[in-house]
Amino acid sequence: MQIAFIFDMDGTMVDNMMVHHRAWQRKLAALGLYMDLEEVRQQVHGINEEIIERLFGGRFTPEERRRIAEEKEAEYRQIFLPELKLVQGLERFLQQAAAAGIPMGIGTAAPPENVRFVLENLGLEPLFPAVIDSTLVQKGKPEPEVFLRVAQALGVPPGQCLVFEDSPTGSEAARRAGMPAIIVTTTHTAQEFAGAPHILCTIRHFDEISLEEVLQRRQAYLEQRADG
């Protein structure tokens, strides 16, 4: 049976969420909304325009929300470029998965400029034939649309996909898509995901798990579900 891997990007492939949080904190303060980093971590997630609308209601027009989002992302890229790298062990894991013939895609709430920023600077484009960013979905996570779109682009049924995520909203999107998940705890603690039956395990980085173990855990999960 074919299997496909779907990766979230921010916090899963690159450990950049605190950079995003700092950039959001600065931008929100400039708009008169002061939040500490823990408040940002808890409340600021998803597609940028949706975040701005959720925090400010109708204060800004759609055009103004887009401009604010673009300014925040430009600041993020400038801050992050000197330290841009994959999460520990991920390069090895991706090469092993590619050698095993496992198709891989990316499903992210990031805008296309940030996706290109990561993939081009790290030379990852050939590994990911299917990339769905924030501009290609109607509803962001926790809605499952982004992961379902990646599965469709890869030509693999959703039930045969495995998601790598770092956030509770991303985990919930995977669950709603009918996909098991492995959580990378770069941003959130393992305890925040406790009790979710679709989560195969949590890892701090990809050196903590091998491709063989991922496949074994997925098989065990499928067998458990079949047994009811």
Distance between the termini: 20 Å
Beta percentage is 5-15%
User: What's the architecture of the largest domain, going by CATH?
Assistant: 3-Layer(aba) Sandwich
Main beta-sheet annotation: 6 strands, parallel
* Tally of helical runs: 9
Radius of gyration, CA atoms, in whole angstroms:
17 Å
Features:
228 residues, alpha/beta, Rossmann fold, DNA polymerase, domain 1, 2 domains, 9 helices, globular
Please provide a written account of the structure:
The protein is globular. Helix 1 packs across helix 4 and helix 3 packs across helix 4. Helix 8 links the parallel strand 4 and strand 5. It has two domains: 155 residues, HAD superfamily/HAD-like (Rossmann fold, 3-Layer(aba) Sandwich), CATH 3.40.50; 66 residues, Orthogonal Bundle (DNA polymerase, domain 1). Helix content is 46%, strand content 11%. Strands 3-2-1-4-5-6 form a six-stranded parallel beta sheet, sandwiched between helices. It is built from nine helices and six strands, in the order βαααααβαβαβαββα. It is α/β, with parallel strands linked by helices and 228 residues long.
